[in-house]
UniProtKB/TrEMBL annotation:
Composition-biased stretches (Basic and acidic residues): 812-825
GO biological process terms held by the UniProt record: DNA recombination; DNA repair; DNA topological change
The protein's Enzyme Commission number: 5.6.2.1
Annotated SUPFAM superfamilies: Prokaryotic type I DNA topoisomerase, Retrovirus zinc finger-like domains
Domain of life: Eukaryota
Identification of the protein by name: DNA topoisomerase
Residue stretches making up the Toprim domain: 28-171
Protein family: Belongs to the type IA topoisomerase family.
GO molecular function annotation: DNA binding; DNA topoisomerase type I (single strand cut, ATP-independent) activity; zinc ion binding
PROSITE patterns linked to this entry: TOPO_IA_1, TOPO_IA_2, TOPRIM, ZF_CCHC, ZF_GRF
CCHC-type domain mapped to chain residues: 1170-1187
Originating organism: Gryllus longicercus
Amino acid sequence: MFLILKYLRRSVGAFSRFSSNISATKMKVLNVAEKNDAAKTLAGFMSSNIKRREGFSKFNKIYEFEYMLFGQKCDMIMTSVSGHLLGLEFVGSYRHWRSCNPLSLFDAPVVKQCIPGYEDIKRTLEREIRKCSVLIIWTDCDREGESIGFEVIEVCKAVKPSIKIYRAKFSEITSQSVKRALQNLAQPDKRTNDAVVVRQELDLRIGAAFTRFQTLRLRQVFPQNLSDSLVSYGSCQFPTLGFVVERYKAIESFIPESFWKIKVIHEKNDLCVDFSWKRVRLFDQLACQCFYDLCIENPVATVVSVNSKPKSRWRPLPLDTVELEKVGSRKLKINAKEIMRIAEKLYTQGFISYPRTETNIFPKEINLSNLIGMQTADPAWGEFAGRVLQDGPNPRNGTKSDKAHPPIHPIKYTSGLSGAEQKVYEFVVRRFLACCSKDAQGQETIVEINIADELFVANGLMITARNYLDVYPYDKWSAKEIHVYEVGEQFRPNIEMADGTTSPPKLLTEADLIALMEKHGIGTDATHADHIETIKSRLYVGLENEKFFVPGHLGMGLVEGYDSMGFPMSKPNLRAELEADLVKICEGRKNPEIVLKEQILKYKEVFEVALQQAAKIDEALAIYLQEQPCQVETSGIVIADLPSVVYKCPACGSDMVLRTKRDGSGKFISCMSYPQCKTAVWFPSIVEAVDVSNETCAQCGPNYHKLKFKFRRGALPSYSVPEDTLCIGGCDRDLLEILSINIANVRPSASSSLGNTQSSAINSSASSVNSARGPSSNNTLTDNALFPASDNIHLPGNARNPPQNARGRGRGGQDRGQRSIKDIFQRPGTFSETSVSNARANANPDSFIDQTSDATVMCNCNQAAIQLTVRKDGPNKGRPFYKCGNQSQCNFFQWADSASSASSPPQNSTEWNRRQTGAFSSDSGLGRSANTSSFGQTQFHRNPSHGMASDRFNSVPSNDSFSGTSSSSGTSGSVGPSSVNSTFNSFGRFAMQSNNDTSTPFNESADNAIVCSCNENALLLTVRKEGPNKGRQFYKCGRSTCNFFQWAEESTNNVQENLQNSFSTHNNVNAWQPQHQTGSVPGAANSYDNDVRCRCGGPGKRLMVQKEGPNKGRPFYTCPKSVDKCQFFMWADEGSSDSASGSSSNWGRNNRGGRGGSSSSNSSDGKKKRKCGNCHEEGHTKRSCPNN
């Protein structure tokens, strides 16, 4: 017995664990309805055991229950939104009325974001979807409902991208329709959502642009009447206003006319029958008098014909939304907006079907008998419903169907309603019963008589069966009695001559206005009422006798103003075209992007003309407002402090505008889409003032406006122009270098295409901000960044004169008559930076001397360098030095005791900078001036033979044509007698071709250059500091990326020796290197050896030591890259790199600005053994180091 009980306990425990596992893996489904009432009703039809809990929004509850779905029991979570959850909005400054020109709103980027006040609903969805694996959309099955569903999907997929999504299709909220929807779940309709998104974006752009234009301008023009008015515009509301204005003007312009007619009355047995004259009326009194006299002379009437035939009064069509609004407005005396609100409420309560439908055909699937049977209990129309059931429902069908919802009809019977809800529900029921009944029947008699050859006609009607009229009191069909006449019968009637005048058409009622909107395709059945309410709330129209629409003064003036421009803005044509296109988008017959672009272009053209002819609106309104218009700009709109557009943002396509800093210290250029896009351009302190010119750049294009610069006095040479109009669009690279502007912030890259970000959010990661807020070399331009691969580059030597049609940015388009910064900052003739320096020094001899010695040493990153002390045993132990303060990113290195040395210039020192340049120091804020070169914060004067600072962008690369020498400071090189022309190929790489130029080294007309350790042309500078080296020339790295230094006279001797020992090679270069066409160039000591590989995997580059010492003339291999070099080094005359790697480490670090001492310390003493590059111990190499 004990064993049996023990076994049972184990079985029960296992079953419990199994049940808990089943429960734990139960599928969770999130259901989202359009409104909370709908969610509650839907949940009630799915289950009778519902648990309610709160969400983050107090208006949108959460209902939990179980339901069999997908063949298993699921945990259902039902919640709701409150209409649209997300909305389109402009980004950045475009949201503010006075921050941009309204014209720019047609192209401004927009982003979809949560509507303010609905953040709690969004949070609820994000929390609930995390624990669910399925999402079912229960929003209304129309265009707007489909779009709301996609907004819910977007929010949920952002949290859980793998969620499965289904769409529930239903037309009424009943138990049967809910179950049917769950059994036939479908996928959301993207095309319908696309149509709504197109409509939303167009409404936003068009409405915002015209509304801002009208409101801001008219407030200035008519301050007495419109100073606080919102003068809105909408592509639907304006045609709606146009209908009212058109009818009112038709009445105003109507001229009544007098007319005359003959009346014949036959009275017999107290029954009077009126006969109508077949001529109806005449507008000539004399002619009518003649006919009347003839009839009086012979007043006997003879019956000519008697026709009797059956006549029917057709029962009404099934009820759709437009008919509900029209008939409700006429018969129930409730305005359309209120009727739709009540109908929506009845729908969510389950009393009627979905009230927003264009269908007037009952589908065969609907069981009409059951719906009619529910109404038999009502005392008012129950008996009629019973008769319809006996005869069988026979609805009259129309011709329209939206293929989404059936006509509006009752779902269930109720007698608990009151007030307006009862009136609307009763109308829906009576309309449904009437359309399912029979037509009214009658007998019509038409009698025609002849009096003096003039014909007169009388009609009579006898109703034989009222049928639907018994239940539908909203239709009238009255009987009209008539005598019994026989053909040939004669009688003597009363004959009179009456007069009258024509009358104008009546003012529009709301029903008339809705009918016109439907006829011309303005809005949809769901938006007619909203558009009417909008023009009423803006006081564009008013109501006369609470029934007839009359235009207001503002509405009349606006319509007449636009009409005077020649644009039918108040006509329905433009909007009707859009509505037709939206239908085609839903049907998949039109591309939504094409529709969007076409419609934006149409309205933008109209808007541009409206800006030019805005005075016509002023003139029209002045008449109605009875106010003299104030004088403002004749074209467009005046916005105080409106930022001026300079160019289009290269990251997002928005406008880049000139702004003033918050502290008022200067100006900068930023993107209008900030903070979504953070592209910006900051000007250095040498710019005292800058403004946007109306002149555009002929080379960069019409989207680039030139800037009027005013530079600080003393920051530039005394004879240079302090003010001028220049372009920063990239055509003048010297200007960009001077202002430290990153090319990526002014011009899109060749591989990027801006496109139009109108209907999508901006990718903030694509935006960039120019960090050059002051003088810095960190953002200086590189060849590939400044010039696309397709551009031609101006080269020195034989290639300095490109064809007239070549697009050369190097000189800012001089051949096109456009001035560059170089043209402005030089005298006529050859530009010489040394002459500029001398001129400046002669003007102020003491300006280049600064006795201050406590300046902070700056590294190449423009950061304060940190001072350290050598700890390693050796000759430099204890010697202080400076290194990069930014985690050694720039490899800066400088001995601390060399900062005050006068015998050789330091590699990077603020003190040297100030002493050498005086007024041209970094304190001036000049990042890269036309007369100086900047290396970090160090600037040197240049030799005339080396031209502008930008010449290194145009110079020939030295990778294949120059020989180099190793020194303690870097590597120098000298060119052979053959000059080289360089152009960019289609991949942005250099292609080298030798020419027949046989100029000698260092001839000013040749393209010879000294090459630094970066394999770039070194700069020839002159020592200005007082001391033994004053006036002595030297070479330095042109990019400040290496610590190359070499006296000029040393390089001359090295070149002569190198020419005697030169050799040439034709080795190919791997595909990852820049492309070169290497010829047999005399004097070229550089070559590539595929048998020797550097650490990057490329062929080693062969160079030769040029420095005086025991290794002079000795060949070696190094990394072939010009940037991002590895530390590879190997003597060419040694069998392997293993033995050389140890000695190369110090050389490599010193060459890159590391902490190691001079490389000559190891190489000068031949007795010293090589040391390991890792542990610095003798006896082994880096590769065989035991510490590896």
